[in-house]
Amino acid sequence: MYEIYCNLRDSRGVKDARVAEATGIGKSTFSDWKSGRSVPKQDKLKKIADYFGVPIEYFSNSDNGLITCKDCGLMYDSSYPNDVEEHRHQHEAWKRAVDKFGQLYCYYPECEKTKTENRKISQNTSLPLNQRLDAQIEIFKCLFSRSVMENNFDLNHVPFDVYVSMLLGNSTINQDLETDLKELLVQKYGTRTGISYGTVYHIPNMHENTVAAHKDGDNFTLEELEKIEEYKKLLIAARPKG
Ligand SMILES: [Zn+2]
After folding, report:
1. Per-residue exposure over 98-116, b if at least 16 CB sit within 10 Å of its own CB, e if not
2. What are the residues facing 197 on neighbouring strands?
3. Which residues of the chain have pLDDT under 70?
């Protein structure tokens, strides 16, 4: 049982002291647990489980080799070679996506923590607007990360700036933004269609050579071609579904 805890703790990259601090459980509980003198009582075990975002039963299941990768966010069972292999693939895709899109928050607890902390700042109207803007951008980065992740780190996902303008163009998502902050965000990113519900962008099914300009690819510079691709995505994204 203690071993399961250790694996989980190490996979999340935290120390006992940090867990103790976050849960309010005395350090002696952890040393007693380690030495086998005693096992944390149910209420304490529940706090530890909550901290890691796992069910309390997690610690009593000795078959558990579950690990959550702090980078790509995939939870996998390290005792199954297939799972390990699947993680390797996802991790590579994650890495390519980070190279293209910049930092991604895929590790759920980190993402939730970042959102909660920044929401306190972005919603506090007594703080300077620029500080609130930065906090709101961090929140958007969390949502963006989730969106890229939901699309299996597909590199056809729109970049962050475009993604934000799509969120801002969706009245169901942006209605909880306070007016001043929203105005500033719209100034910075603009608005456009592309996300009609939720906060996940859906990559349209792109068929090759559907845009005439594509055929004359040789007549365009790389920069122009990139722009064409961008417009193509937006046009397709703006099309009504179904
Ligand atoms: Zn990974």
Report:
1. beebeebbbbeeebeebbe
2. none
3. 61-64, 206-220, 240-242
Q: Is position 211 within any domain?
A: no
pLDDT tens string 8-42? 888 888 899 999 999 999 988 898 888 888 888 88
Q: Under 8 Å CB-to-CB from 102, ≥6 apart: which residues?
A: 160
**In which domain, by residue range, is 23 found?**
2-64
Please give the distance, rounded to the nearest whole angstrom, from the Cα atom of residue 227 to the centre of ligand 1: 32
228 is a domain residue? no
The pTM for the full model equals 0.61
Asked if residue 197 and residue 107 are part of one domain, the reply reads yes
Ligand 1 centre and the CA of 93: distance in Å?
Answer: 9
Which helix (H) or strand (E) segment holds residue 145: the answer is helix 129-150
